[in-house]
Amino acid sequence: MTKQVRQLDRVVIRFAGDSGDGMQLTGDRFTSETAQLGNDISTLPNFPAEIRAPAGTLPGVSSFQVHFADYDILTPGDAPNVLVAMNPAALKANLGDLPRGADIIVNTDEFTKRNLAKVGYAASPLEDGSLDGYAVHPVGLTSMTVGALADQDVSKKDAERAKNMFALGLLSWMYSRPYESTIRFLQRKFAARPELVAANIAAFKAGWNFGETTEDFSVRYEVKPAQMPPGTYRNITGNAALALGIIAAGVRSKLPVFLGAYPITPASDILHELSKHKRFGITTMQAEDEIAAIGAALGAAYGGALGITTTSGPGVALKGETISLAVALELPLVIVDVQRAGPSTGMPTKTEQADLNMALFGRHGEAPVAVIAPRSPSDCFHAAIEAARIALTHRTPVILLSDNYVANGSEPWLLPDVDSLPDLRVEFATEPNGEDGTTFLPYLRDPRTLARPWAIPGTPGLQHRIGGLEKADKTGDISYDPANHDFMVRTRAARIEAIEVPDLEVEDPDGDARVLVLGWGSTYGPIGAACRALRQRGLSVAQAHLRHLSPMPRNLGDVLGGYDRVVIPEMNLGQLAHVIRARFLVDAIPYNQVRGLPFTAAELETMLEEVVKNG
Amino acid sequence: MAEPVALKLTTKDFKSDQEVRWCPGCGDYAILAAVQSFMPELNIPRERIVFVSGIGCSSRFPYYMNTYGMHSIHGRAPAIATGLSTTRPDLSVWVVTGDGDALSIGGNHLIHALRRNVNLKILLFNNRIYGLTKGQYSPTSEIGKITKSTPAGSADSPFNPLSLALGAEATFVARTIDSDRKHLQSVLRAAAEHNGSAFVEIYQNCNIFNDGAFEELKDAGTRDDYLIRLEHGQPITFGKDGQFCVVHPPGGFGLEVRDTAAVSPEEIVVHDSGVTEPAYAFALSRLPGLDLRNTPIGVFRNVSRPSYDNLVQSQLEAARAKATGTPEEQLAGLLTSGDTWTIS
């Protein structure tokens, strides 16, 4: 039969199922197919910390949301147009996010009395009329998959496990996605077990064919490619982009890279990725703890490597003393904090921006460091290079504040030309720098950057000792002199302030906005989407987004002074707002949310509309 | 390979311009002098030697050596030195630490450096007390020790540092004494020649807070009866005219001290520091009691196992050998790997 084809400009699909149902993989594949088609994309994985929570329960639900469009988009979407619910728990956990009229594809095989009872459904929502406001498509995903694989040489269990590929096939048909990359992916993934390659491809094709033949799906959709700048693209998560940025920093600095890391969610993927690229001269060490991880990175930096440690908030707390040592030693070091919801273990797989205070202030003594934050998954690549640039040029620890939202979310990335990346080469000290021509003064500073020489062991004639004790200016000898300590403390602060960072750019297309929205890090997308929506409705609002949080752009005070109201949305209780109010005496309006999820564009739009209209 | 050029360095070359600031009479002076006068023997240029320390009296050591040096933070020297040694196999990296630094706050890093077999020479100055914080008991202080923080006596059982290191499967484990320069230097020599982690416990006197802690091992009247000088390949006897010996009693797990006259010569254990199984060296480490009787000094264990540094470097080299193109070309290839699409 010929199906009707309808054009859409954007779609949000959420795949939801049990932790063991392979929803992350399904979403990832759908995203990859969609990227191949040239749509703009933004994704939001959302999964529990437990590897396998009890099957069929609400805490065990894992989901993956993908937003794709024929224009450039900024967020994974507020509300799904389509929910794929692999079991009753997935339906119950996600129904509240669906607007009326949304499509729901349910795996009816899992809607058994027992599974319904597990999540507190007295009657099946498929039968009691409670889903009347939605377009429900009941599909026996499991039984149809098993049926389709009857001739395959696989166990019933393996056949059942392929149901996610059936679902992917169905959705790929519905949205006219190219599937060649998925076939290739399955061939790679199950290379060692050809029978699984065949079974999963068969399940995928069965899902596709089901869509084509069943009368339940009468419409097929198309979303045309987005108008995007020319070039080569790939879909990338923030953690992958960050790892590539570190590799690029190694290549562009011509230094060996040393990563010290201890496994921690959601940062471990950076360690995994970097451990695969030894050919670039990258050493990865899985240390015995967070402290050893940064200690080893600092030791490597002392020896002339680009030293990096990757972690999340709890790890940064443990690394604080070593960051202070790096402040005193004035050695380059990059500390990546992929933030997650705290305090303590908190919600390890959920996002938050609540480590800003710790990054800025969380050390003993006056211990200033540089702090930067990426705004999107692909921006993690450039943020990593920028962190390395500051660390190497200014001989300072740099904290890079990523978060779970950008780390695991993905978007299309216009691949940069390698030659266009910054030149990060450094000069090690090779000669005595004292006036007598023979003395080496390890704390004699570059007058512009205030950075001290990087004299690595192995350099003849420059033997010197450094340490955590206060040092005398220039000589680096131990000093308890009051005036010297005062001078050194102020100098360490001035060193950070001397870091050159680009001026803050303001986006105000109407040019007459009286309200500025100031954000940092991963809120860029939702804030941008909210501002666009307001502008489309004829309201003026300006957006500025901080990448550099320490030091802040020099024009920030002037920018803030140019608006009647400044609104600061953050996924914390107002940490940037606090700093802005203290430093600039601006009566900024904090807007805060700590639910472990990114802002929706809609809630920001509502809030900003109120400020724009009523001040 | 060409003969290495003799550098003709002297003790003086290893003295830095910094004033040494330990308490007068501290055992650290003797260790510093012994190390400084031993260093020329290595025939390694000073710039390729690095001393890394933690916090404590002993950890001031790097300031006094005219080499590269880092006085780091409490307990973390083995971790910092691991990063340095792993990325810079051309360096000779020494860690100076104390009983509090290495066994209390830094215990984790010590055992992991040892089990990895990082190419570090770890000198643990053991004075069985916290000196820099003015006299609290340490993890090697004897149980019942009365100190500022334990007026009723310590309730903590002490660590035996050598047993701990052997439990962590250290490949080189030795003990020596601050006041015996000749023996100290012989142990340093063996440690320096070892590829991998070399763990050296140095009994060191704190004359302010724990004076005389090892007196019986130093006093001319007692030391021969107390000390067991281990020598590879030699039967283990000690005391006046070798009147005591070490035997492995049948049926038992460990080693015991006997009167030499009461056993047949073939029962006396012949010291072999190369025994692969750590149980033998562990048994040796258990010989002394809290009264310091039967204290072995010398090299307990010296076995060969690939060092972490070598393993890491060979992985890097193997990966590099397979790579083609400039790093920039490789990076461009990596960026475009996987599923890409082009918009024209």
Attribute tags:
heterodimer; A: 615 residues; alpha/beta; Pyruvate-ferredoxin Oxidoreductase, domain 3; Rossmann fold; 4 domains; 7-stranded mixed β-sheet; 6-stranded mixed β-sheet; 20 helices; 37% helix; B: 344 residues; 3-stranded antiparallel β-sheet; 11 helices; 12 strands
Description of the structure:
The complex is a heterodimer of chains A (615) and B (344). Chain A has 615 residues and is α/β, with parallel strands linked by helices. Chain A is 37% helix and 20% strand. In chain A, β14, α14 (379-394) and β15 form a beta-alpha-beta unit. Chain A is globular, with a radius of gyration of 27 Å. The model of chain A has no long low-confidence stretch (mean pLDDT 96). Chain B is of the alpha/beta class. In chain B, α2 (77-87) packs parallel to α10 and α3 packs across α4. The chains are: A alpha/beta (615), B alpha/beta (344). The interface between A and B is large, with 69 and 59 residues. β9 (231-237) of chain A pairs antiparallel with β12 (340-343) of chain B. Chain A: One of its GO terms (biological process) is response to oxidative stress.
